[in-house]
Amino acid sequence: MTSKARYTSRYVRAAPAVLLPPNLQSMGSLAFTPESFAELDAWLAEDGWPTERMDAAMLEGYLVALLVWPIELSAGAWLPPIWGIRGWKVAAKIATTEAYNRFLLLVIGFLQDLEHRLTAAPRRRPLVLEHDAPILSARYFAGSAWATGFMVALHENSAGLGSRSTSARSAVEAIARFASLRSTKSSAMASVATDLNAAVSMLMAERPSRGALGPLPIGLSGVERVGQQRGAAVRKADRTRHDPARSPGKANTQAVNGVAEGVSAAN
């Protein structure tokens, strides 16, 4: 071996892992326990995430909206906002193959658990709306964070408001009202959770029939086409870079305000 070859083999850096959106259909049924939720919550409470990362309460509201509306988004579109990024890019916090895969298992397991809870007979409340334990990753009132997450997801398909029933629009409006109550005391969570759960039940009553993560083309169960996702992610990222109004720092507030205005206009 030449000296140049020895130098290259010793000091060359391994290529970074290529982390792509998952094919959720191939993941199968995932176990998700209270311990899984605690692990996810604690992970989201750690330092090192982008500023706009979701806390566990916001994440639950976001996932519930994806399930009850439903919203036609691929996994490559709806996953990045969870870790606080727009467009397909994995946050540095989970940019290793091991961390990324573990985080996906927790998030998709959470999604599946919510689907099971919402479709059970009798219907069970989502974990956060059971208000049994404080949210470690919360940055403000959990009820407000939950509602904000729901509205962020709905913002991706707010055009569908006009085609929904008056009761469905009223349910969305009820959820939107809680998004601004960030300074509410935690002692109010029980009553707020009851109201949020009632709104979710109203939306579930009108949701098209489907099995767990059903046949609906919303990217939750369909076979993903990575090329299409990556192209869409690049286009969306380009729009974000060239439009300051779409910057991550303003995204959540704009989503809530935009959908709330859409509900008022539809009514």
The percentage of residues in β strands lies in under 5%
Structural class: mainly alpha
Following the backbone from N to C, one meets helices and strands in this order, namely HHHHHHHHHH
| DSSP summary, beta strand count | 0
Tell me the overall shape: globular
Query: What is the CATH architecture descriptor?
Result: Up-down Bundle
- In the CATH hierarchy, what is the superfamily? YgfB uncharacterised protein family PF03695
What's the level 1 CATH class?
Mainly Alpha
Give average pLDDT, whole number. Answer: 79
Rg, alpha carbons: 20 Å
Quick one: biggest sheet? none
Are there runs of 5+ residues with pLDDT below 50, and where? Answer: 7-15, 210-249
What is the end-to-end distance?
A: 76 Å
As for the CATH topology, it is: Four Helix Bundle (Hemerythrin (Met), subunit A)
Total number of distinct structural domains = 1
Roughly what percent helix?
Answer: 40-55%
Number of helices: 10
Q: Tags for this entry?
A:
10 helices; mainly alpha
Summarize the topology:
Layout: H1 3-11, H2 34-45, H3 56-68, H4 75-78, H5 97-119, H6 142-155, H7 166-178, H8 189-204, H9 226-242, H10 248-266
Helix pairs in contact: 2-5, 3-5, 3-6, 6-7, 6-10, 7-8, 7-10
